[in-house]
Amino acid sequence: MTRLKAEQITVNYGDKTIIQNLSLALPDQQIIAIIGANGSGKSTLLKALTRILPYQKGQIILDGQQLKQLPTLEVAKKLAILPQSPEHMGDLTVKELISYGRTPYLNRLGQLKQDDYQIVEWAMSATHTLDYQNQVLDSLSGGQRQRVWIALALAQQTEYIFLDEPTTYLDIAHQLEILQLLQSLNQTQKRTIIMVLHDINQAARFADFLIAMKDGQIIKAGTADEVITKEVLREIYQIDATIATDPKTKRPMLLTYDLLTDE
């Protein structure tokens, strides 16, 4: 069963068409990675699926209803998105920021209830952010901040979590830490994780379902074995790739590559 899908959507930036007549069904309770070169439409697709960007044609369906027709609060209870560059949050502490995840559930007075505080505590525990809950967000390392933003999404209690390049600006240890956290959330809490990734090997290792994009179109979608191939990487990146098998995961791995040359 697919709860979230796009049907023949077209998305424009001003007068420029970025995505045209794109259809996609997102598998439930899986980790989904969107890959492709810069300008291929990855982030645009992510924003359209979360209603941040309007689409001009087609429809996006969530639980049998058109996404654009759903009340904002209802969407906020189902979809959470972590942007590529989260906004500067001033002097907010970690706990204060994560508490904003409960906004869609506040009563008319805008006050947190006991249940809300318990959910915030649970989100911090799940993301291992309890130890620095009273620190100001800007005082944290990049990896710690990413954990806090993921905790914010968890506190929102959505079944879908969208992330735009969640490993950007992190060293390789912190990249692995964040991806393993997302994998754990998927496996233990059945959250559907949809993320844009630049690292092909990270996408192959952690994603159950991959979407390869070029020029606003889906070139290939499927498992790592179906998407991380010499032919697909040639098409979306214009590279001549050497593909091996990861000895740890038994999934395909980009071993090395060269730029394509004119023959």
Automatic annotation (TrEMBL):
Its main location: membrane. One of its GO terms (biological process) is iron ion transport. Residues 4-240 form the ABC transporter domain. It comes from the Bacteria. It is a peripheral membrane protein. SMART domains: AAA. SUPFAM superfamilies: P-loop containing nucleoside triphosphate hydrolases (SSF52540). It holds the Pfam family ABC_tran. One of its GO terms (molecular function) is ATP hydrolysis activity. GO terms for cellular component: plasma membrane. InterPro entries: AAA+_ATPase (IPR003593), ABC_transporter-like_ATP-bd (IPR003439), ABC_transporter-like_CS (IPR017871), P-loop_NTPase (IPR027417), Siderophore_ABC-ATPase (IPR051535). The keyword Transmembrane does not apply. It is found in: Cell membrane. Keywords: ATP-binding, Cell membrane, Ion transport, Iron, Iron transport, Membrane, Nucleotide-binding, Transport. This is ABC transporter domain-containing protein.
